[in-house]
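Q: Protein transport protein Sec24D, please. Structure only.
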Amino acid sequence: MSQQGYVATPPYSQAQPGMGGYQGGFGPGPAQPLYGHYGGPAQAFTAPPTGLMKSPVTSAAGMPPPPASSQYNPNVQQNGAHPQRYPVPPVVSSTYGQPPQPPYNSMASPGPPPAQQLTNQMSAMNLGNYGQASMQSPPPPASTVAQQPFQAPPPVGHPQMLPGLQSPHMSPQMPPPQSPQASMSMTGQPMAAPPMGGMGRPFPGAPPPGLGGFQQPGPGVAGPQGYPQQAGQFGGPMAGPQPGMPGAFPGAPAPMAGPPQKKLDPDSIPSITQVIEDDQVKHGGQVYSTNIRGQVPPLVTTDFTVQDQGNASPRFIRSTTYTLPCTADLAKQCQVPLASIIRPFASLPKNEAPLYVVNHGETGPIRCNRCKAYMCPYMQFIDGGRRYQCGFCNCVSEVPAFYFQHLDHMGRRVDFYERPELSVGSYEFVATLDYCKNNKPPNPPAYIFMIDVSYNNVKSGLVKLICDELKTLLEKLPREEGAESSAVKVGFVTYNKILHFYNVKSTLAQPQMMVVSDTAEMFVPLLDGFLVNYQDSRAVIYNLLDQIPDMFADTNESETVFAPVIQAGLEAFKAAECSGKLFVFHSSMPTAEAPGKLKNRDDKKLINTEKEKTLFQPQKGVYEQLSKDCVVQGCCVDLFLFPSQYVDLATMADVPSHTGGSVYKYNNFQVETDGEHFLRDLRKDVQKSIGFDAIMRVRTSTGFRATDFFGAIHMNNTTDVEMAAVDCDKALTVEYKHDDALSEETGAFIQCALLYTTVNGQRRLRIHNLSLNCSSQLLELYKSCETDSLINFFAKTAYRAILNQPLKNVREILVNQTAHMLACYRKNCASPSAASQLILPDAMKVFPVYMNSLMKTAPLMGSTELSTDDRAHQRLSVMGMGVEDTQLLLYPRLIPLHNMDASSEALPAPVRCSEERLADSGMFLLENGHSMFLWLGQASPPELVQSMFNLPSLAHLQGHVPALPELDNPLSKKVRSIISALLEKRPNSMKLQIVRQRDKPEVLFRQFLVEDKSLHGGSSYMDFLCYVHREIRQLLT
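A: Structure for Protein transport protein Sec24D:
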């Protein structure tokens, strides 16, 4: 039984130094691949009838299974060789992992020199069409020899080959290419491939050359059979990370010498910027009506207006797929996660109507008797309108007398359009006292500002900056639509080793300070005058904010406490019987003797070991209990951190990340350069729309249910999602599993109900409904997938998994599942085509770009150069992100500014995130929602530099420029307006960093070019695509 089309010469059957360095990242999984979700049962890829594909657990007939080994085992996946199960004539049996013996040696022809090999491999990629747009793809070779597989029917039992492409997985008795040239003759003049209709529509016969989805052979395509291929990180020989750069692939081969290599044209592989642009052209500026079940909305990046006609706006809820598979078996087969990402408080643009508030008075909202779902468009009225059947559990209930209404000739209620809960997908109910704590109406929430006044913060000018800002910011506290002033109360605390509370009662002439030095038994020393209405006490508060910086000007106390500070805020809310938010401004690790004292546990020796996960786990004890207590009281914590060294963010951020809070981090804060950046965050944070003391439940129609929840949340049981607060930027991701079959006819319904307290103290229910299609055809599921939502789900599952699993396993699972989803599409939905083609579903064609980018994010990269706190911070921020935010984070926008029309309103079209797109004479803006760079090419023309910075040349641009100077010329105005529009739009502020090409800080900028190789060892998009393609072929062989 031969393992592969080419024959390995003896030296290559042993391990080679630097071969196949998968060990750190993507490698052969365990012997039985765990393709399920993290922690789920191991699932194997459903094997087709014997003779078509190898089963994942046993190896080819009569051979022992490959040894499972955590290290890369040279004999298991030697150059991607896997035993084939094509029907073959008896072969001299050879031990597993050894080269096949002489019978086929005669076929081997000498291979090209190694450096040429990659060229051939890349140029032989036959990139045909993957979607409606016609694309350039290399022409079929002129030689008729290679065309033979199309003219004569291929031998039975062989995969059909595309002209000129040779699969490395050919079975041995397939005729070898007649000449080495034939197999490489794909290089050369591009030819437009015929446009294809829908993606992957089956059509009889062999696909015409250049057709049949996005086609790409795997590694080793070009070399003739006998050439022993050396595996690089992803199959093709390629340079590993630079020496001394610890990477995800420790065993990567050293860079190979040789002539410069021709690369495959990157324009011919799927591009995110193109997908975004196409969607904008198709849906931009249009009205999207939500009246059709299971319709896929425009992308998050597209500007469109939503008209709610029975399903919640995609701004509130998006799904990974809008067609659920009918059975659990189908779901298991395709491995596409079924999940929705819910942003219950998403901000709506000015031109979309705010949610209607429905008030049924004393009786409260109408609900199904059995499953307690709220009245919604999926309830069917019967019996002349006297009863209704629940769309979720099919239970029939009586319509209350006050709610009765006749039905029209279509069986719809006559008042259908007058009642939001019957005609729209999202609306609110006023909740009755039954929905309130202790059956009494809640008090309006309060905001407490807690300022660390230790030596560093006073000396850096931070304390003064905060106090000055609060004077104006408190005028803008959130308030209900139409209310004159905010009902939110405010309080102030300063602290270092001890806590100072301030009485700012409106009747006082001067604020009074009360000190609590016993941090072990925290209590609030005053009830009256601590939480006040800002408008009433404005004069006293001004007075206090003026005094705080002077009061502590001479402090030399550098130790701080942290847990008691949160405890104090919590006690204040308890005493005032209200919910609210703590704004904590803190700078260092809490080392003073007190509950929650932390010690430095940052240990770089743990990186890339089994114990690395402990770096992300919060320290148990005080903070865990504090989180629970905060959630019960509805006390949300927002943490503003100003660290100059390690602060154990994983533990300090534990309370914010379970109470619906946010963590903002400003490393080595300096007022001059970071002040404005921090204040933008603070202003947004104080003003954003928000609900408090929230509890949410997701109900589904019969056949499936919500099983898992990811977000800045707390779960006391398996169904109730508790959030001390939920704001307009927080989203939670919900995964669903089948518990029965679904019906194509009725579809599937989801209802998310959120009970919360408004900023003026009213208890409300916010309801979002979404209906999805169901199908027993996998093609339908793949057609209605949404890549942006899928990657949000994968980011959150992976970031949760790294708390309990080694990074290596998590990365492996991600690659395995990517390959699995795409292999299932290839096997069940795509038209037949050569194995050497990579075929992607149209809706998921850019999924590999996002997945590769996710695997290169700091939390998933085991590199000692990354700060542990930064990794923990990114891990926690992503857990609360919506689809829009993860999309941008994983694929930053790179906008060319040097050649735009300064007089036009339009934003220049973004280009792909790759170094190849930068121009030496250009100026580019890059942003990902958290970082922003203005990159200047070294050959930037003097007039460009003059109009942007008022300097004669780039060389005069010295040191750090915190902001662009305000110059009176069209280019400067346009660039500044683009930047301020982006800062306005994104949830977080971004600090503009100006970098010159080839300057040292450019290294920071480069790690955001996600299509390129990463500094810390992550692969490029192209390499990842080759690798995934090889994995897919192994699943299908």
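A: Brief note, in case it's useful. The longest strand covers residues 763-775.
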